[in-house]
Every structure is written in structure tokens, then in C-alpha cells.
Specification:
Elements lengths: L2 H27 L4 H13 L61 E8 L2 E7 L5 E4 L4 E2 L4 E6 L3 E9 L5 E9 L2 H5 L1
Antiparallel strand pairs: 1-2, 2-3, 4-5, 5-6, 6-7
């Protein structure tokens, strides 16, 4: 045999050997998920599937809105004062005093003074103006009338209107502002 035939024969042997080795390796490997598939098949035999029936859908019944003539609950309404039905109703024709334009919560009592045996309270509004008030003056937005003044507080009688339009009386106090004393 010649050298060229010898090389061709050895190349052929190497090719056949590599094909056989590949086939042998492929045959040994098998399916890597075989155990998983076998377990799934076993579980599928024992499981009984059940699907719940769909719920019954009730037919839609539209709502008929018949309250067009009633007041809109989303719009603010002004409560009209009762016409002469309450003895507590405030005098709406009275000239308003300057402290009636402020809510009572925004007013601060900052001191007192006495002149001619009359006690006056010093009240500061949120615009930093200090006013003098005495018994009988009005302050706050709820028709509050000053009933008494001491060195530590101002007592008020306010008139408030409930949702039915009736007037009610309530007592409130405006205490001396301690922070003003510390300054």
C-alpha cells in the first residue's frame, strides 16, 4: 500500500470512529426530563379536575332619578333666616361692627384696660390691628355679643342657625393670649 492510500485509510478509520463515538455518547444520554415527565404522567392519572360553574348574571335594571325638583346636594346653599318665628333671631338690619368681619377663632385677646370704671378688652385681629371692646359690643361672624370682660377672658353669647333654620344661643370665651404676655 502506498503512503497516500495509508493516509486515506487512517482518515477513514478516524471518521468512522468519531461517528461511532458520537452515536454511543448520544445513546447514553437519554432524555434529561424523563423522570419529570414520568412523574407528571402519574399525577395526571390521580387528579380529577373540576371547574365551578359561572355565576348567574342578574339583568341590569336602570335607576330612575325623580328628584330634579329637590335642591342639589353638591351646591352650597344659604340658609334663610326664619321670618319672625324665633325670639333669638338676630337683628339683620343692625349696622355691623368692625370685629364682626373676622371669625372668632382668628381674634386674640391681648390685654385689658379700665377707664371710668368700665373694663375694656384689647383684641387683635389677624391683620395686626388692635381694637377696644366693651360689654355690649359685637365680635365674630356668629352675631357674638360681649357679655362680660375680665382680666383673663372675654365671654360671648353667639347666635347660630341650625339646618332647620332655628336660631340657638351658645356661650363662648376668648382667653387672654399667654404668648403676648411673654413678649
Amino acid at each position: 500500500m502506498t503512503a497516500a492510500q495509508d493516509r486515506a485509510l487512517s482518515w477513514l478509520r478516524a471518521a468512522i470512529l468519531s461517528v461511532l463515538m458520537s452515536a454511543l455518547i448520544a445513546g447514553c444520554g437519554g432524555d434529561p426530563n424523563q423522570e419529570l415527565r414520568q412523574w407528571m404522567d402519574e399525577q395526571a392519572k390521580t387528579v380529577q379536575g373540576k371547574v365551578d360553574s359561572l355565576p348567574i348574571v342578574k339583568p341590569y335594571v336602570p335607576f330612575a332619578y325623580n328628584a330634579f325638583d329637590l335642591p342639589d346636594p353638591f351646591k352650597p346653599r344659604k340658609i334663610e333666616p326664619a321670618r319672625g318665628s324665633s325670639k333669638l333671631a338676630p337683628d339683620m338690619n343692625r349696622r355691623k361692627e368692625s370685629l364682626e368681619s373676622y371669625p372668632i377663632e382668628s381674634l386674640r385677646m391681648v390685654g385689658t384696660l379700665e377707664r371710668d370704671k368700665t373694663m375694656y378688652a384689647l383684641v387683635r385681629a389677624n391683620d395686626k390691628i388692635v381694637y377696644q371692646v366693651r360689654s355690649g359690643n359685637y365680635m365674630g361672624q356668629n352675631f357674638g355679643i360681649v357679655t362680660s370682660i375680665t382680666e383673663v377672658d372675654i365671654k360671648l353669647r353667639e347666635l347660630v342657625q341650625d339646618s332647620s333654620g332655628d336660631w340657638a344661643e351658645r356661650q363662648s370665651r376668648l382667653l387672654l393670649d399667654d404668648q403676648e404676655q411673654k413678649k
